[in-house]
Amino acid sequence: MFYRPEDGHGLPFNPFNAIVAPRPIGWIGTRGKLGDNLAPYSFFNAVAYVPPQVMFASTSAKDDRDGTKDSVAQIRESGVFSVNVVESAARDVMNASSGAHPAGQDEFEVSGARKAECETIDCPRVGDAPASLECRLTQIVQLPGEANFVVFGEVTGVHIREDCLVDGRFDVTTFRPLSRLGYRDYAVVENVFTLARPGE
Predict the structure, then answer these.
(1) Are 136 and 153 in contact (CB under 8 A)?
(2) What would the pLDDT profile of 10-46 be if each residue is shown by its tens digit?
């Protein structure tokens, strides 16, 4: 099969949603003039080591947020956000926070996620997440298409849950990270192996 996206794919479900997978989930915490917000984004990743930097993309809009979603709107206001790692055990809480709630509705309260304060920025984070990254906005890039924004941030603080450290390493097998596949499908990381680079 070959198709040009501009011509359509002819399938009942968009295959592009499932091709780039698995994708890590950035559970984004923000604070703005309307209050606190928490929402998951599967267009998310780390993009640099020094200084450490991350990105997430928002690709739709809400009627009450002027062409974007709550997370991007509040980051524009505050210039900061938290990224929280989603463990398998938190999948239902994460999913509950993904609803299209009205602006000003606190998804920490809606979902039951435990709220904690960040150290280097004025922003909420998920208090029992395996890891949380405190981030200062570096830039927001508007991509082609309606409501497509990529948010970049520099990590200014890192929280790691103690039980996730094993022999000095952040060990994902201790919490089984949740990842997004296509459509409404998810996966859990359970099988980890090591590969040495050529010449090592």
Answers:
(1) yes
(2) 999 999 999 999 999 999 999 999 999 999 999 999 9
CATH number, position 155: 2.30.110.10
Q: Cα(61)–Cα(124) distance, rounded to whole angstroms?
A: 22
For the beta carbon of residue 51, count every other beta carbon within 10 angstroms: 9
Structure tokens at 39: 């929402």
* Confidence (pTM): 0.95
Q: Which residue has the tokens 């570096």?
A: 138
> Any idea how long the chain is?
200
Q: Do residues 39 and 69 touch, judged by C-beta distance below 8 A?
A: yes
Strands 149-160 and 53-58: antiparallel
Phi, psi dihedral angles at 21 (to 5 degrees): -155, 155
- The values of phi and psi at residue 94, to 5°, are -60, -45
- Report the SS3 class of residue 22: coil
Domains of the chain: total: 1
Cross-strand bridge partners of residue 39: 28
